[in-house]
Amino acid sequence: MQVEVAIVGGTNILNTKVLEEAEELEVKTPFGKAEIDVGVINGLKIALIRRHGRKNNIPPHKINHAANFWALKELGVKKVLGMGSVGCLKKDVSLPAIAIPHDYIDFFSGATVVKSELLHITPGFDEELRKCLINEAREVCSKRGYTLLERAIYFQSRGPRLETKAEVRIISQWADCVGMTAGSEATVCKELGIRYAALCTVDNYANGISDEEIDYKEIVRRAKNSANIAIEILLRVLNKI
Predict the structure, then answer these.
(1) Average pLDDT of the chain to the nearest whole number
(2) Measuring CA to CA, which of 22, 77, 144, 186 is 20 to 30 A from 107?
(3) What integer is the mean pLDDT of 217-231?
């Protein structure tokens, strides 16, 4: 089975019917099993990974990134679009927003497919995929009244907890948004020779950035509201890449 493009999403696409003619696969890899759905979007064969599992029971620090992307590689995937919800580290950014990160900081996850060989990749997001996301996001965000961050530094925390106010004060000096997955995904993709870019919905301010109390259920609610915007952008991009 050859599939060239994949989407990786979180809780915001768990209950969204993204694929037509979907087939649920369980792929064995040297790093464990990976759950992958393969189906059709707008006539294109697409692979989909729900990074928190089909039952939404895999917390961020337990996601097996190595198995997920090794399985995509075996299916022939060459390009991956990741989507997820992040917290905003800048008070002057109007929410809701869409961010398309151009760089990331990931000190803690250790995600890798490297075992015993020496492999030192230069990590980063794929610029060509980023440009495709930006081009399509401009029109959608303008129409929907969303702020668009065409450049953003993504800080990856380990999870599963959210960040303390003290941690947010520190990382807000370095980054624009904070999440728990995109850095790991970008790193493993680069190691496997897969091109990767992320589309992030910015649904809340990180802990202490605003006077608003952080509530995880409210974050999930807002992320679901933004999911349709992100999916609309992704569908437009799929036809271009």
Answers:
(1) 91
(2) 77
(3) 79
Bridge-based pairing state of the strands 32-41 and 44-50: antiparallel
pLDDT tens-digit map of 144-167: 999 999 999 999 998 899 999 999
Q: Please give the share of the chain, as a percent, with pLDDT higher than 90.
A: 71
Distances (CA, A) of 104 to 1, 37, 142, 213: 32, 28, 26, 26
Q: How far apart are CA 233 and CA 1, in angstroms?
A: 26
Sign of CA pseudo-dihedral 33, 36, 38, 44:
negative
Please list, in sequence order, all residues whose beta carbon lies within 8 angstroms of the beta carbon of residue 205, skipping any fewer than 6 positions away.
87, 88, 91, 95, 212
Asked if residue 175 lies in contact with residue 89, where contact means CB atoms within 8 angstroms, the answer is yes
Q: What is the pLDDT of residues 55-72, one digit of tens each?
A: 888 999 999 999 999 999
Tell me 13's DSSP state: G
Give me the long-range contacts of 34-41 (CB less than 8 A, separation at least 24): 34/64, 34/67, 34/68, 34/70, 34/71, 34/72, 36/6, 36/68, 36/71, 36/72, 36/75, 38/1, 38/3, 38/75, 41/235, 41/238
Structural domains of the chain, with CATH: 5-238 (3.40.50.1580)
What would you report as the CA-atom Rg of the chain, rounded to the nearest whole angstrom? 17
- pLDDT score of 14 more than 60: no
Asked if residue 162 lies in contact with residue 134, where contact means CB atoms within 8 angstroms, the answer is no
Report CA 64 to chain centroid distance, whole Å.
14
